[in-house]
Amino acid sequence: MDEEHTLSEAARQADQARLEAVIARLDRPIVLVGMMGVGKSSLGKRLAAALGVAFIDADDEIERAAQMSIPDIFSTYGETFFRDGERRVIARLLGVAEPAAKGLSLPPVLSSRPEVKVIATGGGAFVNDATRSLILARSIAVWLDAELDTLVERTARKGNRPLLRQGNPREILSNLKSSREPFYAQAPIKVMSRQAPHAKTLSCLMEAIEAWLDEHHISLPTHES
User: What is the DSSP letter of 68?
Assistant: First the structure.
């Protein structure tokens, strides 16, 4: 038992050391992109907690800036207005100064080098060319993907999906998934969100981020005396 406990403790310490090394190497936000219902917010919160950084849901920030719910923004102003506001909000979260559009109240940019954080975006954000360019240039973009059946089951739990009110939800999700995948595929990291414990998906995501850091030769910062 003592030997098993020692091995278990050694493995835990090794995992912790590996996690701390990943955290130390991060130099930009992590942005989760993908379809509605894929689990960007739930996984994003767990990732942020593991990294010890802030989690931000871009949709929440859009609603705060517009002082309206997203369904109300869609019904009142339309999708074009929403996408423009979405782009502006995400730009601010990534440290890019953007003038506020009419009807939006955006906080000032505090730094041109935004701190490490985890940002979950709406399903259509990465499809917008300007928004996608910003995310790719100023963050580590992660495409969180899932099977269609999983998306249908998860989105059925919430009634605040404006795009799914326009017909058969399964058909809409299928068409959106097909049309958006070429854009999502431009993210350098892809992780599947399956019907499995969140801990397993989180582990896969951490491994993918570590591999990305290795690929881009981002090493531990040096401290000069």
Answer: S
DSSP notation for 166-185: GS-HHHHHHHHHHHHHHHHT
Distance CA 197, CA 80 (A): 37
pTM summary value: 0.84
C-alpha to C-alpha distance for 35 and 10, rounded to whole angstroms: 39
d(CA 201, CA 203): 5
| Distance from the Cα of residue 139 to its chain's centroid | 10
148-196: per-residue pLDDT in tens? 999 988 887 776 677 777 778 899 899 999 999 999 999 999 999 887 7
Separation between Cα atoms, residue 102 and residue 86, nearest integer Å: 13
Report the distance separating Cα 73 and Cα 88, nearest Å.
15
Q: Which tokens go with 38?
A: 């894929």
Per residue in 62-113, pLDDT (tens digit) is 998 888 898 899 889 888 888 988 999 999 899 887 665 666 665 555 444 5
Question: In one letter, which amino acid is 197?
Answer: P
- Answer whether 44's CB lies under 8 Å from 119's CB: yes
